[in-house]
Design goal:
heterodimer; A: alpha+beta; 7 helices; 8 strands; B: seven-stranded parallel β-sheet; two-stranded antiparallel ribbon; globular
Chain lengths: 188, 296
């Protein structure tokens, strides 16, 4: 999987990997030209597929230990079956990526000269921020409660979908009625 | 806009290099193994594992350095059959040191890692109900680690005991592209032949590896009252099947209850009963394989 910044037609670089939290992995990519950032959020099944591939998102900084995969992923192991190895815990963020700090390449000189290295680095961010401010949304507690009923692994996606729907219609508050409207329109 | 193919690399994870490193590690390990043979059958319950264990012993008795990979991740039995069940694996500087069974046979099996007889192989995951989506990949990566990270040392032959079916043959040949060949095991029943023929065709059509030959297991048994040999499964002619499929018929192994008893004790039958019809048949088949290896 590769990501391209559409505006710059430049490959985006992996910047940070966090999680998995409740089975979801967040992988942030940034455009080295304009510094526009996006995040890839996996659901638990996608996270598990990454696990099953035995690759590290963010790359490896050291060679894997012998039988690291099976020792980490096997749910029940005989005590003492493997002598002289580091005890393996349940899969954690370590099993996905070792990138917690930015691994994105520094901004190009041109980008720095344009002041993209400081503050909001996307040339469209000012416009985007104004739009975001104008459409700053608040959630009614009842609407939040409705959202809580959505399975946790798709909740962030559902939230984004509802907010996008509301923003497109100029709503400033998300109420239960808005959620009903979303369900009626988008079939959520 | 750039397409996928216009871009070199994946932006930071370098997944391709990680996979290449895995492949290189596996290739380096397998370079010290002269021959790699998969023991397969489309059908379950035909005695693949018992045949594998006893062929390993027969070949080791002739002085060959043998390793056995239990490629049946979910139904591992080689540790039991070769008497290393419950033994510990040790981490050495060159990888995981496998326990050694009779005649110095090196054995790697998932069974060595499981905590009890009742414990099935289960993986950490979001939900076991959907595990069919990803557990195939888990198993392939387990086999890759078993092959690549085990300190097999120099081997003349690595025997891989595969589970029933043909899908694992594809997985194994994906891991070991230079797999020397497949040894196919069947019982002489029409039902078994029906399924095993498909496995032979699959191996041949996909060109995964040459089929070294067909072994008939439980061909006959000796009546304990009159001593007369009788057919276990009347009707199936395994030799004719091998001829029809264009593969060598390597021999027939008689059913012998002592073989089952020896397996349960974890003592290979061939060690305790080399002079029985079944023991002699196993030795003959092993010698045929050895002759073929030397001719290669």
């Amino acid at each position: 999987m590769k990501f391209v910044c559409v505006l710059c037609d430049t490959q985006m670089k992996l910047e940070e990997t966090t999680g998995p939290v409740e089975g979801s992995l967040s992988v942030t990519f940034a455009c080295p030209s304009c510094a526009h950032r996006i995040a890839l959020l996996t659901n638990p099944w996608e996270t598990q597929l990454v696990r099953a591939l035995d690759v590290k998102i963010g790359g490896r900084s050291s060679a894997p230990e012998p039988w690291e995969f099976v020792r980490t992923m096997l749910a029940a192991k005989r005590e003492g079956a493997l002598e002289g190895t580091t005890p393996s815990a349940e899969p954690s963020s370590r099993d996905f990526g070792e990138t917690s700090a930015s691994s994105v390449e520094p901004l190009s000189r041109d980008a720095q000269a344009e002041g993209l290295g400081a503050g909001p680095r996307c040339p469209f961010s000012a416009v985007a921020n104004r739009a975001a401010e104008a459409a700053s949304l608040t959630w009614d507690p009842a609407a939040e409660q409705r959202l809580e009923r959505v399975p946790d692994f798709i909740r962030p996606m559902a939230r984004q979908g509802i907010e996008r729907f509301a923003a497109e219609r100029g709503y400033t508050r998300i109420t239960e009625e808005v959620i009903d409207e979303v369900r009626g329109t988008l079939g959520f | 806009m750039k397409t996928y193919w216009d871009i070199v690399g994946d932006g930071g994870s370098n997944v391709a290099a990680q996979v290449e490193a895995q492949t290189a590690r596996l290739r380096g390990r397998m370079a010290h193994v002269r021959r790699k043979v998969a023991v397969v059958s489309g059908k379950g319950g035909v005695g693949k594992s018992t045949v594998t264990a006893n062929l390993a012993v027969a070949l080791a008795m002739d002085g060959l350095r043998i390793g056995v990979l239990d490629a049946d991740v979910n139904g591992p039995s080689m540790a039991k059959l070769l008497g290393v069940r419950g033994r510990s694996l040790k981490a050495g500087p060159d990888g995981i040191l496998p326990p050694e069974g009779p005649m110095g046979i090196k054995v790697v099996s998932m069974d060595l890692l499981l905590p009890s007889d009742e414990t099935p192989v289960a993986w950490h995951g979001p939900a076991q109900q959907e595990s069919f989506i990803w557990r195939g990949m888990m198993e392939v990566n387990t086999l890759r680690e078993f092959l690549a990270d085990t300190a097999w040392g120099e081997l003349d032959l690595l025997l891989a005991d595969l589970p029933p079916g043909t899908d694992r043959i594809a997985h194994l040949t994906g891991l070991i592209p230079d797999l020397t060949g497949c040894l196919v095991v069947t019982v002489p029943s029409e039902v078994s032949h029906l399924i095993v023929k498909k496995a032979v065709s699959a191996v041949r059509d996909a060109r995964w590896a040459p089929t070294l030959g067909l072994v008939e297991n439980m061909g006959r048994f000796t009546c304990k009252h009159c001593g007369a040999p009788e057919e276990m499964f009347p009707g199936g002619d395994t030799r004719a099947m091998a001829t029809a499929m264009g593969i060598p018929f390597l021999g027939s192994i008689d059913f012998d209850p002592r073989l089952a008893a020896a397996s349960d004790r974890g003592v290979p039958f061939l060690l305790s009963h080399p002079d029985t019809p079944a023991g002699e048949a196993l030795t003959r088949i092993a010698r045929t394989i050895q002759a073929w290896m030397e001719a290669e």
